[in-house]
Write a structure and sequence with these properties.
This protein is mainly α. It contains 15 helices and no strands. It starts with about 20 loop residues before the first helix and ends in a 6-residue tail after the last helix.
């Protein structure tokens, strides 16, 4: 069996043997850093808007948005690449749900204790804390949970279909989920911009196809880098051209935002290029590989913490008190990097403490009657 085909933890952090591959773990870290960059750009309100002219800061912001927009698709590709070969275990979802609830319940409690007003002002908003998946408190987690629950069916299809059949299925799905939304000048009612499990299913099947049949024409570090850079450059150029048209001629105003949708064709090719870049990076075993493997599972905590409903709109204004207002010139690059790095390090430190607490509870509950009953029902332990 090729080392790439051994089971991988995907999005849910867990202990896996043999050790996770450091190059894919590094890609997870890079992808999450890119996700936080996307949220910085959005919260800073520095991207091009159809009703306002584009200055230096908007041009730079669009460039970094184009470079980082592949991050979410990459995360799903990693998950699909390894999960399409591994067995289904409900314990993964259970572990993920416990981690999410830990933060959705603890964060508002801590904020309320220090006198910070909470998002929840009525019973309906309270449900965002108690049922984060059903309420889409984190849209990515909601889509991922549904994707994982469907993964046994998707895996069966990947294994049953021939390469040609699987390719035709993917092309058909891409027509509706990617090609049409990428070229339509008006919004299609079917289109969710890639913010749903339907698009995740398409990415999952693509990743499963790559694992089983490969894409030899782009399977190298150089070719992956060219595809990634070329796609990002295309997204950037198209976004600026469409903004110019939308602002000056008041036409294609909806379409001006399409290049930054997750299911835009160049966003997909950008993610595939980035995936093949890191697929062909070889990280030698040693301290660096161990640190990467240790840090990568904590990146999920970065997402859950900084995108919490009570934090997502507050972390950037809070950081501007220390690092100054968002610059309206080229210095925004350095401001973004230091803010994103601060969020990344702080959230990872918090999740490190959470992981120690979870490990302690897990060890002490491992042989209890309740744990054995849960394992008997859901198969929470790794028996593979």
């Amino acid at each position: 069996m090729n080392s790439d085909q051994k089971e991988y933890s995907g999005t849910v952090s867990q202990t896996v043997r043999p050790p996770r591959m450091a190059n894919y773990e590094l890609l997870r870290i890079v992808a999450m850093f890119m996700v936080v960059c996307l949220h910085y750009l959005s919260n800073a309100d520095v991207l091009t808007r159809t009703g306002a002219p584009a200055g230096t800061v908007q041009v730079l912001a669009n460039l970094f948005e184009a470079l980082c927009i592949a991050s979410v698709n990459v995360y799903v590709l990693i998950t699909g690449y390894f999960l399409s070969k591994s067995g289904f275990r409900f314990g993964r979802i259970l572990s993920l749900m416990l981690e999410i609830l830990f933060y959705t319940l603890l964060i508002p409690l801590v904020l309320s204790l220090i006198g910070i007003p909470l998002y929840a002002g009525n019973a309906w908003q309270l449900w965002f804390y108690i049922f984060p998946v059903s309420m889409e408190s984190y849209w990515f987690i909601t889509a991922y949970v549904i994707l994982y629950l469907l993964s046994p069916l998707l895996n069966a299809g990947i294994e049953k279909l021939s390469g040609r059949q699987l390719k035709l299925v993917i092309i058909g799905l891409l027509f509706f989920y990617c090609f049409m939304p990428s070229v339509s000048p008006v919004r299609l009612t079917f289109d969710r911009f890639g913010y749903d499990f339907g698009w995740f299913i398409v990415l999952y099947l693509i990743a499963g196809y790559i694992r089983k049949y490969g894409m030899t024409r782009i399977d190298s570090l150089r070719k992956g880098a060219i595809l990634f850079a070329g796609s990002a450059a295309g997204i950037w150029a198209i976004s600026l051209i469409l903004h110019y048209i939308a602002y000056n001629y008041r036409s294609l105003q909806y379409y001006a935002d399409v290049p930054f949708h997750y299911n835009f064709i160049l966003c997909l090719t950008s993610a595939i290029g980035l995936f093949f870049m890191f697929r062909n990076i070889r990280i030698r075993e040693g301290v660096a590989a161990k640190l990467i493997r240790y840090a990568a599972p904590l990146t999920l905590g970065v997402y859950i913490i900084h995108e919490n409903v009570d934090i997502r709109d507050r972390w950037l204004p809070s950081l501007t008190k220390f690092f100054g207002a968002v610059p309206q010139n080229g210095l925004i690059i350095f401001h973004m990097l230091i803010c994103v790095l601060t969020v990344f390090v702080l959230c990872m430190a918090v999740d490190f403490i959470r992981s120690i607490f979870f490990a302690y509870v897990s060890r002490n509950m491992a042989n209890t009657k309740l744990a054995r009953k849960v394992d008997a029902i859901f198969g929470t332990k790794n028996r593979e």
